[in-house]
Design goal:
The protein is an alpha/beta fold and 771 residues long. It is built from 31 helices and 33 strands. A hairpin with a 4-residue loop joins strand 21 and strand 22.
């Protein structure tokens, strides 16, 4: 059915919290400290209650506790602190452990039309989903449905498809390893590789870029490496908001003598100064200054900057200064001569124009690089969500290769994941482009012929739904509709599906923009005890540094009707794949059996159960880190040549990137405040340089319509309205606004080369005074 919704599929702008007075103040000069502690405990005790909330925080990220459902920053191996959580982790736990409930009575009271008029924050605040719900074709209200009936409905619809590729099976990063492995097994037994996931929207560019360059799509460093590093370059990342526990690691590195360079269009608070709330100096003192140098690179100027940094190193080496590691380059690298020639032919004028930085400032960065024998590059979505995102990743890696900073202690690449098990899901086989070796192992273990053709990623899924080629969308977690750009394209595609299914813990906008029929299947949260026939179950996750860790739920489920993700997948397979050779119910009853299969299929997981029984965690092998083995086509680390391709910005326009606020996790918004950037009471703001405001004939605080401009875009107008201008220290010609409120400005076809990741960070906009 075509869901009754606001015009153009756009979520409403009104949030009850918007009625409070908007306050704009100066950005904070330090992160964490007592305010972070107060915020953490206020959130968890107000939503979960003081007793339950305190217990949950004490179990968070402990060996016998549960893994944080927030970011994927690793825990120290075998040496947890008493309080191993951050402010944002506490918010994520509180949000999941809320005492509020969205049950059948709630949906009977609120129609789809009425829910569409509510804000994202209001939807999330209604509490935990506690029973399966069904939206029949043509209905205006979800209604309760029995689990068996829900599984029968899904199985019937799947088996009515003309071919398996008419279904797509999405996965979010909150899914544990056991559920992810079972999910991909079911999907491939069903007959398709249509396994889009949230990696397609965030770090896909990292995987593609690193895969071509060094042969592994993961990071090559550990926490110990960061603590030993002599220089750490942080590109396009805001750890104070998105990975707060990283600040403690950077503090350790800084105290050990590391130089830290922050490269970002915004000078984020978390990299200025850190007040560690677990230390006296973090409570009553000044804390620790982190960054030694800040580079205000203009949006999409990273390729130019990196070419400049490499040029500075090569020029010094040409003057017979001992800068490059020629032994490493000769023994382990391929393509250096071509790379060097390209760098030498790139002019400093083009580098300065492309990056927005002076040669003198880039030379200061080169000084830090030359003074370090152990260098690490860290990055997040500020690097991965551009059209040339893969080039960003590869030039960062090339920069490290010049000085041999791969495969040795204290050095390497460090992509920082923003979801708790997004990396683990990919390791478990959640990928639309599986490698033949994985499929061969799956075939040998389970005795079937897995499909070999590539499936669709997230963007291709939207295209497939629009074209009527994908008729069923099954989403294991996440908020697909809201997280993707171009809600018009998404709404059009979803409305043509025969069935959409969301496995969820909380209400979100993806439950409102549906196929002709829709199901909501409520799942256990990470904090909740998972009891099956075989007893209380343990799951595992993989963090950003390739460590497998256990997670044990600690509180009773929000409802007796909740099922674990493993249970939901196993029963879905049982109902859909009749007379299948896999005993899905046995796997549901005992997750150890799933781990035995994982051990037989995926290298590095040998003796899986025995290892987690003994230690609760173990480190996966990494050829680059462990032995300087590069599994590329050349057998070596590849230098890659890229040109400086600046985004064309017309006169009177700006280049905008999307960002997250401090009170936000992905599409989940906790409040309308951003403490570190000095914004309170609204999310509808545009951060912009003071001089640009004046040049455009506008003034600070003025409400504007933001309109985006794309060559060959079929949409007549893409705009969002009533955004207040906020003067901010951002390079001239650049602007920033919150995600996902500005996602509608991005057409579905604006993607990164090779990785197909939506280009959320490169949006050409013009501003128009609101009437």
């Amino acid at each position: 059915m075509k869901t009754a919704s606001p015009a153009n599929g756009k979520p409403p702008s009104f949030d009850p919290a918007d009625s409070q007075r908007i306050e704009i103040s100066s950005p904070k000069e330090w992160a964490a400290g007592i305010p972070a502690v107060i915020s953490a405990y206020k959130n968890v005790t107000s939503k979960a209650g003081p007793f339950k909330g305190t217990r949950l925080l004490s179990d968070l990220n402990q060996i016998e506790g549960f893994d944080c459902p927030g970011c994927a920053w690793p825990d120290p191996l075998n040496k947890r602190a008493t309080f191993e959580f951050c402010e944002n982790g506490a918010k994520a736990v509180a949000d999941e452990a809320t005492t509020k409930r969205a049950d059948g009575a709630f949906f009977a009271k609120h129609s789809i039309r009425q829910l569409c008029e509510k804000s994202d924050r209001w939807l999330n605040d209604q509490g935990r989903l506690v029973e399966p719900m069904w939206l029949p074709e043509g209905a205006e209200h979800y209604q309760p449905i029995a689990w068996d009936s829900a599984f029968e409905l899904i199985a019937k619809q799947l088996n009515l498809l003309d071919n398996p590729n008419q279904a797509a099976f999405y996965t979010s990063g909150r899914t544990g390893n056991e559920a992810a492995f079972l999910y991909q097994l079911f999907v491939r037994k069903f007959g398709t590789n249509n396994l889009p996931d949230c990696s397609n929207m965030c770090h896909e560019s990292s995987g593609v870029g690193l895969g071509e360059t060094i042969g592994v799509g993961k990071g090559t460093v550990s926490l110990e490496d960061l603590e030993q590093a002599e220089a750490i370059f942080v590109f396009g990342q805001n750890p104070g908001t998105n990975h707060p526990r990283m600040l403690g690691t950077l503090q350790d590195a800084k105290r050990n003598g590391a130089k830290i360079v922050a490269i970002n269009p915004l000078d984020e608070t978390g990299l200025k100064r850190f007040k560690n709330p677990q230390e006296v100096s973090g409570v009553i003192g000044n804390g620790t200054a982190l960054r030694d140098l800040y580079l205000p690179v203009k949006i999409n100027g990273d390729v130019a900057l990196l070419k400049g940094l490499c040029k500075a190193l090569i020029e010094r080496d040409n003057k017979h200064q001992p800068v490059l590691d020629h032994d490493f380059i000769e023994q382990y690298c391929h393509g250096f001569d071509e790379f060097k020639a390209d760098i030498e032919q790139t002019s400093w004028q083009d580098i300065q124009q492309g990056s927005g930085l002076s040669q003198a400032l880039i030379e200061q960065v080169a000084d830090i690089a030359c003074g370090s024998k152990k260098t690490i590059c860290c990055w997040a979505m500020g690097m991965t969500q551009h059209k040339n995102a893969v080039a960003n990743i590869q030039l960062m890696t090339n920069f490290l290769m010049l000085q041999g900073n791969l495969g040795k202690p204290g050095a390497g690449v460090c992509p920082v994941r923003g979801h708790s098990n997004v990396q683990g899901d990919r390791t478990m086989g959640i990928w639309e482009k599986p490698n033949p070796e994985f499929l061969d192992a799956l075939e040998q273990e389970f005795g079937f012929n897995p499909p070999r053709d590539n499936g669709v990623d997230a963007v291709e899924t939207v295209h497939g739904m629009q074209q009527g080629q994908i008729k069923v969308l099954f989403a294991l977690g996440g908020n697909f509709f809201r997280a993707m750009p171009d809600h018009q394209a998404n709404e059009q595609g979803l409305s043509q599906c025969e069935l959409t299914v969301q496995v969820s813990t909380k209400l979100n906008r993806s439950h409102l923009y549906t196929g002709k029929q829709a199901l909501i299947l409520p799942a256990l949260g990470r904090t909740e005890i998972d009891t099956q026939v075989g007893g209380i179950q343990t799951i595992t996750v993989e963090n950003s540094m390739g460590v497998i860790q256990t997670s044990h739920g600690k509180i009773p489920p929000a409802s007796d009707l909740l099922k674990s993700e493993v249970d939901i997948i196993a029963q879905l397979a049982h109902y859909t794949l009749k007379n299948d050779s896999v005993n899905w119910i046995a796997l549901r009853d005992d997750y150890r059996l799933i781990r035995d299969h994982i051990a037989n299929v995926i290298p590095g997981f040998e003796n899986f159960n025995q290892r987690i029984d003994a230690l609760g965690e173990f480190v996966l092998p990494n050829g680059v880190r462990d032995a300087r083995v590069f599994l590329t086509a050349t057998g070596k680390a590849n230098f890659m040549v890229h040109s400086i391709d600046n985004v064309e910005v017309s006169e009177g326009c700006l280049l905008m990137m999307t960002i997250r606020s401090h009170d936000q996790f992905n599409t989940t918004v906790y409040t309308n405040n951003d403490r570190y950037r000095g914004v309170r009471g609204t999310r509808k703001v545009l951060f912009i340089n003071k001089q640009d405001i004046a040049e455009l004939g506008l003034h600070s605080g003025q409400k504007v319509t933001i309109r985006s401009h794309w060559p060959n875009d079929k949409a007549s107008v893409r705009e969002v309205t009533d955004f207040a201008l906020v003067e901010y220290a951002i390079p001239r010609g650049c602007a920033a606004a919150y995600y996902p409120e500005t996602n509608d400005l991005i057409p579905i076809d604006s993607v990164a080369d090779k990785s197909n990741t939506p280009a959320y960070k490169s949006i050409v906009i013009s501003l128009h005074a609101s009437g």
